[in-house]
Amino acid sequence: MFVLMRAVTYASLFIGLVLVFLPSRLLSLAGIVQPKFTGLPQVAGMVTAAVGAVLALWCVTSFFRVGHGTPAPFDPPRCLVVAGPYRIVRNPMYIGAGLTLAGAALFYASFGLLAYLCLLFLASHLFILFHEEPALKRRFGEEYSAYCRTVRRWVPRL
Question: d(Cα 21, Cα 147) in Å, to the nearest integer?
Answer without folding.
Answer: 35
